[in-house]
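Journal club side-thread
Mid-discussion, someone asked how the predicted structure for our own chain would compare to the paper's figures. Pasting it here so we can look after the session.
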Amino acid sequence: MKKLILSTAFGLGLAGMAAADPVAGIWKTAEGEEGGYLHVGIAPCGSAICGTINTAFDANGNMSPEYENLGKQIIWDMTADGGGAYSGGKIWAPDSDKTYSSKMSLSGNTLTVKGCVAGGLICRGQDWKRVK
């Protein structure tokens, strides 16, 4: 009987870990210098959180199917710290083609995403809005 209870508890614990992370979904980035923006799909990838560019839009809100970075990973190795905070990951900035250390914080339907240098002392960020 003890084995059955332990097995059930262990199975429920794994099921909880497999549940969708609260940050999972589609996110609209802030507009770039020319007014365009991206939709980034964020989902678990292994034991971390990753984000991939799903769709690109021009300044008029029209889809840009020719955007060269569609399908490219923009966030990787992000881990949940609890309380809506994420850290330890990397973010790639398509506008500069540079990769930065990254951290994120989730508050309702707003995801603040930051790329940092100098050991996290200097950060640049954007607020992304949940699409779905």
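Post-session note: The beta strands are 25-28, 37-45, 48-57, 73-82, 85-93, 98-107, 110-117, 122-130.
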